[in-house]
Amino acid sequence: MRDRARLVFFLLSLANMVLLGLALARAARPGWAAYQRSYHRLEAQSEPNAAAKAAVEGAPVAIAQIILPGLQRVDRCTTCHQGVENPAMKGAPEPFSYHPDISRHPPSRFGCTICHGGQGLATDLAAAHGRVAHWHQPLLPREYVRASCGQCHTKGDVPGVPELAEGRRLFDTHGCRGCHRLRGVGGTIGPDLSREGATRRDPAWLERHFLDPRAVSPNSVMPNFHFTPGQAKDLTYYMLSLTGEEMSNYYTSESVIPSIPYGRELFARKNCITCHSIGGVGGKSGPDLEGVTRRHSARWLDEHFVNPTLVSPGSTMPAYDLTSDERTALIRFMAVATDKDAEALLAGGAKALTPEEAAVEAGARAFVHYGCVGCHGQGAAGGVANPNSQGGQVPSLIHVADDYKKSEVMAIIRDGKTPPLADPAMPAPPLTMPSWKGTVNEEDLHNIVEYLWSLKPRGEGSRW
Amino acid sequence: MNRRSFLSLSTASAAALLATAGMGLAGFFRFLYPGVFYEPARRFKVGYPADFPPGQPVFLPTEKVYLFHDPAKGFSAASAVCTHLGCTVQWSERDRQFDCPCHGSVFAADGAVLRGPAPRPLTWLEVTLSKDGQLQINKNRPVTDAYHLLIPA
Amino acid sequence: MLKSILRSIFRGDPPSTQKGRSELVFYNLWLHIHPAKVRKEHLKLRHTGYLGFVSFFLLLILGATGLALMFYYHPYPPRAYQDMKDLQFVVFLGPFLRNMHRWAAQLLVVAVFLHLCRVFYAGAYKEPRQFNWVVGVLLLFLVLTLSFTGYLLPWDQKAFWAITVGTNIVASAPLVGPVVKVLLLGGHSLGIQALLRFYVLHVAVLPGLAAALVMVHLWRIRKDGGLAPSPSGPREPSAPPRETPIPSSPEKSYGLMGIVTGKPTFEVLVPEEEEAVFSYPYAFLREGAAFLATSAAVMALALLYNAPLSEVADPSKTPNPAKAPWYFLGVQELVSHSPALSGILLPSLLVLALLFLPYYDGNPSRRPRDRVLALSLFALVVLSYLVLLLIGLYFRGAGWAWVWPWAKGAGGGA
User: Fold this and answer.
1) Interchain pair B27, C92: CB under 8 A
2) For residue C233, what pLDDT is reported?
3) What gap in Å lies between CA C400 and CA C403, rounded to an integer?
């Protein structure tokens, strides 16, 4: 009895020793240490003498981490990706290669995961790249990484990422807000998209969804907009940029990049061409702008935007409310603008407006901005299917002036409306008019109604 | 089993248990030693040399370091931690000296102790040029006050 | 010199003599809870399964690993979740210690439950051990509460929603339910306050209570006359004689040795000298082996299986189905049928029945063949709970709807 007990006791002591030893051995050999040692060997190759080589090769290994309080994350990617800031590692094998063009966004301020995705806290390959269970932010495929720029650069054009601006434009012009809420504005028929890029971080799914919503989401009520593959990709970029990430001022302060395309966009939006000409093409009430950046310094132009009469007494140009980045963008655009640009701008329909026309114009913009076109169609012509509503479609609004008073239309927009059922036995139509009270302000409401009244075809008499 | 193997079994058990306890204790202390440090990096980049024209020293508050740029000698960096009890010293441009607010220690511009109770001069830190052309300070590498990084124009 | 230091630490005679072996136990704070001699029968694995020891050792392992984990834990969301990731990825032995803590906790729930079943089967809760049964049942609930509070600390989705479900089971109790929930959570829903409260309960209040109750539990084993003899063996004499004179010695007015040499209780409990052996080394060797086996099992599990960790807690997104920790799934299954009646009333009655068992079970016999009704009833209750638990664990999917575990995409596991 005693012998057997002693033997069992001994074997169990041995088992404990072995198990603890195994645990220690596993803990003592982390995978990242091997990567760091091979990086040290790679670095040592370029050292001139044996002593320096040995010093570099023998450098201690430790987990590297970048603490980013402003982005609420800690990134340990540089534990293995040691060469990201070392230009000598251009073309080095992964994970050691140099990150081109990184000086504008130094890893010490931006880390890695805010753009690339992945799991910054992890230190083993599969987990760090986020391709594990219970981690929703896997590495973005290389061609979609640039979508992340849109998290901070929320306005204007991002050089090198035309997809973002185009995706944003498509979103605004196709009435997506009619059904989808984005940062507090929009309808409630579809899901809120404010964090779509974080919750649905799957470019392939998003692209297929834009090409045909029901292909990936069989019960979707979203109409098929027949986007081209290119447009689907643009929208996917935009969606991926909507991560709802809370960032400190440091990251959001430079949201606008004063690029030439952004300057061009502003030039068009502010209708500069109605007063100014470029190379002789355009309005004549202001000076021609060709070569203006050679006649005046950038500083003079900048101050002129802020207060025209102070810099150029007698100027009739109004002071526009432009941010510093917007002024810079306009100056950059003017430096390269030609008469071709002016012709393109004039073709785009810039003209002087009466107050009534301005209201209609603003109404048309609001009709697009709040996403009314998503259901009521481009030009309010209707046509979006809405099964089991009367007519089976969301109604056209072109003849609304014949059937309603302005106050009635305003009330419907404010309070919403449930379409009457075509067949009471069938399920209710998926699309309903949401209540826009609190979202659409009184001025926009008024403008939208003016716009709708303007749609009534000219020369057609009233029904009465 | 005879008495001999009996004893050796006890001894072996005791040895195994002692080894386990030893490993456990060593493992526990290794466990307590942080794997990562939630503090400003000991080796850090401060920016490009052009960002720091010669003149007044620049105080880096997170890292508690003064960065000097002497037009003739180049860049040097001093730890702003008082060698007495660890308060942060303040540079006085008027007197060209460091004052410690805690116990009145005063250090000369070269870090030497002018007035007590600080026992040692301020620590000078290695400044190097990193591979991407930025200035890099390494707190793990103290240097003498004669150390400067001169960047040829 | 060394000898005199050793002599000052171990005061008795060397354990080569019988007196020395007794003194080794008496003069040692940590060992004196043992009798100097134990019945051979009690050392047999099949008598107790060493389940009490295993539970006690698991508690020790949990205390040690838990203390270590506290060095790296902030009870503050979402940092708490980041701490889990740090343990996993950057702390030396971090994954191992977290795994050990996790699996030891799960084993403890199993061990105390089996311990309770064993004691019931042996009828060991009967006179004179009624009170120790009550202490044991209280310890079972403490263990469950410890496990429950610890479940929240990783602050992942699984933890968040399991505890949300769990605390809402509590809230469905009549009258006091809602108030208890607010007291527990420090709010109306799970958040920063709840995490801090669960943390304080988990690392200070509950372990303190458990330690106190464990001490009472162990001490009462001795005071109630040691382990209960085998139920099929001869009946134990009802109570030790009370009027035993305590012999006095010239140096001390009171001495434990005096009681033992005077053979008051010992004689009653160990009538035949050949049925008993000295605790040193026989009992200690086996207890040591039980400890080593427990720790080896926990370490092996920790090496083989990682403690689960899902996404960071997101109060706006409920996973479907949201399940309580596995040992509460039986209750969740009951709650799903009717919160007030089957969810609270039935379990409460069960708890009371368990707690006061020794006081209404009037059958003095501990032989199984005299206790057919009691044993069948107990087996019925235990089996019903296990069935409910298994249903909750494997047969409930999204929306708590019935699913077959082998069906594709069934939401099993807890």
Assistant:
1) yes
2) 63
3) 9
Contact B23 A85 (CB under 8 A): no
Asked, for residue B103, whether it belongs to a domain, the answer is yes
How many residues would you count in chain B? 153
pLDDT below 70 — which residues of chain A?
A: 1-2, 348-355, 458-464
When pLDDT is cut at 50, 70 and 90, the band that residue C380 belongs to is very high
Q: Which fold has domain A355-454?
A: Cytochrome Bc1 Complex; Chain D, domain 2 (1.10.760)
Q: How many CB pairs under 8 A join A and C?
A: 67
* Residue A1 to chain B, least CA–CA distance (Å): 11
Chain A residues 60-79 with a CB less than 8 Å from chain B: 63, 65, 67, 76
Rounded Cα gap, residues A83 and A102, in angstroms: 12
- For residues C6-17, give the mean pLDDT: 80
DSSP string over A11-43: HHHHHHHHHHHHHHHHHHS-HHHHHHHHHHHHH
φ and ψ at C237, to 5 degrees?
-60, 140
Alpha-carbon distance values, B64 to B41, B69, B79, B97, B113 (Å): 11, 17, 6, 16, 19
Was domain C29-229+251-322 assigned CATH 1.10.10.10? Answer: no
pLDDT at C185 (0 to 100)? 93
Residue C125 has pLDDT above 80, yes or no: yes
Residues C243-265, mean pLDDT to the nearest whole number: 48
Q: What whole-number percentage of chain C has pLDDT above 90?
A: 45
- A20 to chain B nearest CA, in Å? 7
| Gap between the Cα atoms of C331 and A340, Å rounded | 76
Fold of A260-347: Cytochrome Bc1 Complex; Chain D, domain 2 (1.10.760)
Tell whether B28 is within 8 A of chain C (Cβ). Answer: yes
The closest of C75, C73, C102 to C87, measured between CA atoms, is C73
Q: Tell which CATH classification among 3.30.930.10, 2.60.40.780, 3.40.50.300, 1.10.760.10 matches the domain A143-252.
A: 1.10.760.10
Where is mean pLDDT largest: A224-228, B30-34, B48-52, C391-395? B30-34
- Inter-axis angle of helices C177-185 and C192-200, nearest 10: 90
Domain that holds residue B97: 43-143
Are the beta carbons of C71 and B32 separated by less than 8 Å?
A: yes
Q: Tell me what the mean pLDDT of segment C14-38 comes to.
A: 82
CB contact B11 to A (< 8 Å) = no
Domain tally, chain B = 2
* Residue A1 pLDDT: 54
**C-alpha dihedral sign at A29, A30, A31, A36:** negative
B120 and B69, same domain (yes or no): yes
ipTM, two decimals: 0.87
Beta bridge partners of A67: A74
State whether B10 and A6 contact (CB < 8 Å). Answer: yes
Residues A120, A114: Cα–Cα separation, whole Å? 9
For an interface test with A, which of C292, C298, C312, C316 has the most A Cβ atoms less than 10 Å from its Cβ?
C292
SS3 content of chain A, % helix, strand, coil (to 5): 50, 5, 45
pLDDT of residue C253: 46
Is residue B32 within 8 angstroms of chain A, CB to CB?
Answer: no
pLDDT at B142 over 60: yes
Strand-pair partners of B137: B44, B127
Least confident of B63-72, C2-11, C100-109: C2-11
Mean pLDDT of chain C: 84
* pLDDT exceeds 80 at position C339: no
Selected for mutation to probe chain A from B11, B39, B129, B131 (highest A CB count within 10 Å) is B131
Q: Residues of A with CB below 8 A from B6's CB?
A: 3, 6
Place of tokens 């044991």: C136
**Chain A partners of B13 at a C-beta cutoff of 8 Å?**
6, 9-10, 13
Length of chain C: 414
